[in-house]
Amino acid sequence: MKGTDALIETMLKHGTKVTFGYPGGSVIPLFDAFLEYEGRIKNLLVRHEQGAAHAADAFGRVLGRPGVCIATSGPGASNLVTGIMTAYMDSSPLIAMGGQVKVSLIGNDAFQETDMMGITLPITKHSFQPRSPDEIAPVLMKAYKLASEGRPGPVYIDLPSDVQSGNVTKAIPKEVRIESFRPNVRPHPNQIKRAAELIINAERPLFLIGGGVISANASRELKELVHLVQAPVATTLMGKGAFDEYDPLSIGVAGMHGRKIANYAVINCDLMIVIGCRLIDRVTGSLRTFAENCRVIQIDIDPAEIGKNVKPDLPIVGDAKLAISDLTKAIRGMAKKGKNTEWEKRISELRELCFCNLDRDCVPVSPIRVVGELMKALKESDIVCTGVGQHQMFCAHFMRVRHPRTFISSGGAGTMGFGLPAAMGAKVARPDAEVFDVDGDGSFQMTIQELGTCAAEGIKINPVIMSNHYLGMVRQWLEIYFNKRYSQVSLGKNPDFVKIAEAYGLRGANVTRPGEIAGALKEQIKSRETFVVNIELDPESNILPMLPPAGNIKDAFGGCMKAPGRFF
Amino acid sequence: MAKKHIIGMLVEDQPRVLTRIAGMFARRGFNIDTITVGKTMRPGVSRIVLTINGDDRVMEQAEKQVNKLVDVLKVSELRQEEAVVSELCLLKVCTKNENEKAELLKYAEIYKVKIADITPASVIFQIVGEPAKIDSFIGLVGKFGIKEVSRSGVTAISRGSRSLEDKNGKTAKQEGVNELV
Q1: What is the 3-state secondary structure (H, E, C) of A272-301?
Q2: Is position B47 within any domain?
């Protein structure tokens, strides 16, 4: 058995049947071995390694187990870096493998040699460089464990070419232990009891839900707890989908471009129950004023996140699923104080005001109309991936998502170009779903070459490009904070994206009027191959409301047609 | 209020462990003042003792972030009052005449400092003890002209019979975080 066989056998044992990769000299042994395993494992050949990393990342986000990307040494592996960093910032399970020169050449500045271990040190949960074929299987087994258990994250494996092609002498171990890796999943019963007491006695409780609840697969438990407590639920960008946004207790995404009602609840609650959320600056605004009038319960599996930004009144380390179900049991066993009718009434009143009509008829097309038409075309199990920018925030703000792992977006890193390859990875993960890539004209062009992968590998996705000919989010900031001193934000005349799709052997349609959107989306969904819909938008629409950066949430401005003016 | 903290940790003796730890501290903006690393009685396990400057919040984050590293087995703050703290310093002093040298050697005798090397123009001292003692000696002989200083950085062990290597001792992972503020 060679090192590559041990690698592939271990991948198969962990349920990996597909990888996203691009060849090169240092990974010839590995891709050669793939030929022996045809029918059991397949590599999808991308057009840029960044595409492989984003696709594998999204694959992992949709399925909840690690996606695998493979690149050759040197520039191949370094092209993975942005994708690995993106997964790291969003705690996504990813295994990235990079070829490496022969062991004897390491450190010699050999051809296509790069210190990827060094480069990825700060952006991986851990990394390995097996130095003999026998080390490959145990290393990969540890990698799967690390990527998926506790707080998920990317793991990088550096594979010298002679380690790949060398002979394995020891049997593949049945299991591996990592001595220092024992995530503390069981929440402390005393903490749970205290939390239950705080929740029962709160007059204005609020749940703030982050991506951790989705990673823990705790949506069902969360729904039960929320309905028991009858408190409103706000989420972060990463937590979108953890709680059904059609539920009357859902108040949407909070934060910089969050719903007014969500930010209102954040400011006016007296108890904030934060679960699986790291309280990034986009959600909190200035830390000096965040949660200044309420108590905070923070539940997280990563003890380092507790108290990192906000010092909680009650910290609970543990797995979200276990903590939430323990809380439900504890609260059921306690005498209920009585309903928080005033808070519930106020929230539900404001929530009504906060839902606007998405059917804007303006020409040029409003991004809000696009989101509205998308909502009509989507089935609740369909998946939306986004790029980064205004279009992403329009989706986060106006879309209503019902299920976890159906809204896939680069939150912590905000990586433009994520959308298209992510949609690819999501479709491979769930071929039964319609997968949309809602993208910006800037973001789309960053990884546009993956249209080639979609065409060649027969991956059918639905790219919807919101074209305003600007790098919209930056332009908005320049308009608001720099007196419209537009510098480097104009994309000018875009290429005809439909012609580009056709050049790849795919199809598409250009849309310039709001009435055309529904028809284009219908044709897109009906199509058997990837069909690109490009929608020409109002060039200078802004996504509002907006929190001033590092500002007090109370100073959010704009948005909400039905309730103009200061909301707080 | 910023003060000096001593952190002791047990780590797996794997390639790049030191880089990972130093890199993590740098990334989070914690400044490492001193760092020492050496073998322990367990094969494949090394002990790192480092000192940082910062307030209690910085210290708490530093400990938690280091604990996340997969190569790190155990982390504990070694508080000065509860630990034996020791450092080694090699100090080269060049005196201009015999009188100066005699005075210098007298100070060394008073401080019970070992002479590691002596030539007509220079003396090398080896001072072992608490950092404050080393600082004090350096301050005293500074007037003679210190040619070179090489300090090892602080190492430390908790007083009493507990040990960082105790299997059933609490780690930073378990204690502290679940306490009610």
Answers
A1: EEEECCCCCHHHHCCCCCCCCCCEEEEEEC
A2: yes
The ipTM estimated for the assembled molecules is 0.88
Nearest Cα neighbor of A420 from A530, A537, A542, A284 is: A530
Question: Between B27, B60, B71, which is nearest A180 by CB?
Answer: B71
| Co-location of B19 and B75 in the same domain | yes
Torsion angle of C-alpha atoms A473, A474, A477, A483, degrees rounded to 10 = -130
Q: Is B165 on the interface with A (CB under 8 A)?
A: no
Alpha carbon separation from A381 to A93, A390, A404 (Å, rounded) = 22, 24, 9
Phi, psi dihedral angles at B119 (to 5 degrees):
-130, 170
Q: Is the separation of the CB atoms in A545 and A356 below 8 Å?
A: no
Q: Does B27 touch chain A (CB under 8 A)?
A: yes
Q: How many domains does chain B have?
A: 2
pTM: 0.95
pLDDT in tens, chain A (568 residues): 999 999 999 999 999 999 999 999 999 999 999 999 999 999 999 999 999 999 999 999 999 999 999 999 999 999 999 999 999 999 999 999 999 999 999 999 999 999 999 999 999 999 999 999 999 999 999 999 999 999 999 999 999 999 999 999 999 999 999 988 888 889 999 999 999 999 999 999 999 999 999 999 999 999 999 999 999 999 999 999 999 999 999 999 999 999 999 999 999 999 999 999 999 999 999 999 999 999 999 999 999 999 999 999 999 999 999 999 999 999 998 877 667 789 999 999 889 888 888 999 999 999 999 999 999 999 999 999 999 999 999 999 999 999 999 999 999 999 999 999 999 999 999 999 999 999 999 999 999 999 999 999 999 999 999 999 999 999 999 999 999 999 999 999 999 999 999 999 999 999 999 999 999 999 999 999 999 999 999 999 999 999 998 899 988 888 765 655 556 6
Question: Nearest CA to A69 among A79, A81, A58, A55?
Answer: A55
Asked if the bond preceding A133 is cis, omega within 30° of 0, the reply is: no
d(CA B181, nearest CA chain A) in Å = 6
A191 reaches B (C-beta below 8 A): yes
Report the length, in residues, of chain A.
Answer: 568
**Does B149 map to a domain?**
yes
Which residue segment(s) compose the domain that B122 sits in? 85-155
Structural domains in chain A, CATH included, are: 3-165 (3.40.50.970), 189-354 (3.40.50.1220), 367-537 (3.40.50.970)
Residue B162 lies in a domain: no
User: Contact, A140 vs A173, CB < 8 A?
Assistant: no
Contacts of A194 in chain B (CB under 8 A): 180
Å between B86 CA and nearest CA of chain A: 28
- Chain B residues with CB inside 8 Å of A178's CB? 70
